[in-house]
Amino acid sequence: MPIIDDNGFRAEAERAYLTPEDALASEASELAVLLPNDASAEALAPAFGRIALIAVEFPSFADGRGFSLGRRLRALGFKGALRAKGPLISDQYAFARGCGFDEVEIDDAMAARQPEAHWLKAAQNNQALYKRGRAA
Amino acid sequence: MYRYDEFDHDFVRARVATFRDQVARRVTGALTEEEFRPLRLQNGLYLQLHAYMLRIAVPYGTLSSRQMRQFALIADTWDKGYGHFTTRQNIQFNWPKLKDVPDILDALADVEMHAIQTSGNCIRNVTSDQFAGAASDEIEDPRPTCELVRQWSTNHPEFAFLPRKFKIAVTGSPNDRAAVKAHDIGLRMVRDDAGAPGYEVIVGGGLGRTPMIGKVVREFLPKDQLLRYLEAILRVYNLHGRRDNKYKARIKILVHETGLEELRAMIEAEFEAMDAPTFAPSAEEIARIEAYFAPPAFETVEGADAALEAAKAADPRFAAWVDTNVVDHREPGYAIATISLKAIGEAPGDATSEQMRVMADLAERYSFDELRVTHEQNIVLPHLRKDQLHEVYQALDAAGLGTANIGLISDMIACPGLDYCALATARSIPVAQDIARHFADPVVARDIGEMKIKISGCINACGHHHVGHIGILGLDKGGIENYQITLGGDATETAAIGERMGPGFPAEEVVPAIERIVETYKAERLNREETFLQTYRRIGAEPFKEALYPSEARHAA
Q: How far is C-alpha B383 from the chain's CA centre?
């Protein structure tokens, strides 16, 4: 399971994510939550202080709901790690970063097809977003 | 007009490099065809019936002569010597080879142009009033707003994978020439009671299979809140728009199924939750943008009106052209001319490379170097001195561009149809050509008066047939082209969806059917001042149905 950030790939063992409901009920800290892309960011907000990682599911690279969900989580004050999990393509890396995500989780088959070099190139493309005139 | 600075130049060059890289990754298999497709589309490249089609963005329809000349060069170098101006105020080239596309994009970047977001499920190229900055009825120039929206929507990280395409149109005039009620978002520039500038925000308009007139979601939005409000609408749409059926994925369906009141509450809640300063463009950026749209250096022309009247008296064909193709300018001594790309018997919206060069030369010499593309598939010279109109007309006429038919029956919108398009179920261009030839006599056309015929070759409605005074929809019925007729559509501030008259007609019966509609109008109108649309609204569909489907025949059937 490669995890991709601005520094490239890093390996991570298969992780046991909590559902949003279990996270809200839990009293433990440093939780990792898997959030479907039609879930409510607001509903999860009371648990933000106990969550270290939220992975937003992208069921398909063409389903862009996760980008809006990422921005909402950040707007609501989530300060932990935010991960886009699913079959994203390297061309979407800048979009994910622009929506508040820190990293992307893809499966091994995708990593074989789109190797680290592609993602590093995408991470270094500082023209991938048209940024000026406004802070967002 | 807007000019690129270093930032824009770097951005567009980087996009060309990215697209080259994407093509290379598709070739190696790093990208699957399914993954490559939206990337290709967001770079304006479609796969059509016979070839690829490249759709180039003309932001809010504004062009310089240099840019128009570059279209001519592209047409000659990589296409078949012509281009097609579209209802999106863009230009399409119908015959580029895939291997040439990165070179074409480089040639576009040389003149500050690109094909970004002219297709795909993203925020498309923003459109506007082709008379912006020149119209005598304008409240405020819409172009700085358009440019701000262009910058905001370009590669917006959150909105590049929407449920479906998303079109925004802006008008600064109460007389809507930009069809804002037929867009996903329409913005009308207005002022509140205190005179402060802002927008009426219209949402959920659209044509296609399920035509809808947009609804007012916000009566008055202060000008500096625009991007924040757009962001709120787009976020609600991105999260809640349907993704299970592409034909139900436009925001118009979300408005329809959710209800305007509930959707408005969702948008307002999102809007309130957003940090206002984050979305407010800086005053410096607003000033930078507005400076590009400062009025050109108009001159005080002595005797301009007298010179125009003398030329009209001496040249009746010119007088006829002025009558139909020229409208008032806000500046005394100036006029706005629309160049018809609807010469009788030609494909609506097509221009040859030679015609492009003629139009570019005239813009450079007479119109402060500016041209506009209209959503009705014509070209505008926005700032002409009245005493120079005759020279301009003569040059246009010599290039086959002097057709005096703007707003008349032969000034039709037609989609490319089955001659080009992979989606089409019937041909559009030959139908338009037949109608134009039938009503070619200028005396006949003038007697009919204002008449907007719009033709689509399939239910996706690229030819805007739903909002044509006469709409024609080409379908396939058991392998035979069949054309349905709607009447009473309207794309302006009094927008309406046309009403279907009855069963369709085979291709050869379309012209006779239009003839019967026209004859019914002429018999029923109160006087020559009452337009077809006014007559239709006054007397309703029944007399036209009777003309199209005589009751004897109906009862016999």
A: 20
